[in-house]
Amino acid sequence: MDRQLRTAMMPLRHALLTALATALLATGKAWASGLPAAALACSNHLGLLPVAQGQRLSPPLDILSWNIQKTSNQGWMEDLLKLGKGRHLSFLQEADLHARLGELQPGGPLYQSFAEGYISHTQRTGVMTLSSHAPTMQCNFSRTEPWLGTPKAATVTEHALAGRRERLLAINLHAVNFTFGIDDLNAQLRPLAVLLMAHQGPAILAGDFNTWSAARQQLVDDTLLQLGLAPLQFEPDLRTRAFGRPLDHIYVRGLTADFTKVVQVASSDHNALVARLSLTIRGPDHAQEFHRRATVDGERLRDGDHPEGSGN
Description:
Layout: H1 3-8, H2 10-27, H3 37-43, E1 61-67, H4 76-84, E2 89-96, E3 111-119, E4 124-131, E5 137-144, E6 151-159, E7 168-174, H5 183-198, E8 203-208, H6 214-226, E9 230-231, E10 241-242, E11 245-246, E12 248-253, E13 255-263, E14 272-279, H7 286-302
């Protein structure tokens, strides 16, 4: 699909995503505040912005996901240099912007995509995606911790791929933590789900999900499974845990893992996740499938019927 055609289809994409959100609201499945406007605006640029010359990622992709604990512990720089060496994408949480993390690798400065979270007089921290090639787009989202009043952030970047028309959507998430129930986590996932619905191509969602309860893990799994994302497996599974549950995850769509590993570190309270990912042959178009469901559900609602699984 060329750029002119994608541009012409933007109003249709907007209408279909809105129809999907309306259907979900009507069935009680979910989004109490409706479709996030910022996510909708971001989705309208997917696949449309120009690619700079020579700025296409070449799979297989070597990636890192690590909560770096505000670069506050001895040895973090040495660990980051080793863990980040040769990575196409590094998803860092609690990254300190003042530490200039993208300039550490001896191979040259990396592209930094930062979304602000906690800040103080001496630190400005958040999520940071380091990439070996320039992203074509970046959008940031945040959700305030209800108890602490501090934001947790997500940054979304899009990357052109060598030899492919479709692009990679990369999402770096630090999930809200101290909450009653799962409503705040659900609200934080909403805009990311909108983008994953709209995106036609492979996707990575990585980060610190704070999945310390069965309910939180189930919400994440159910949300992402519907969008075609599956979690990477680690053996041995040395991921950092709380109440016996792993907190850090990497979910992928349109990609398979050639290699995964958990690297134990002493410079953070989270161990690091690394993986090598290869593109799969393109499967079902998840965006089109969601659009189809939204249209069907909308027609049922106009006819007075309830979609399958909804309450009265």
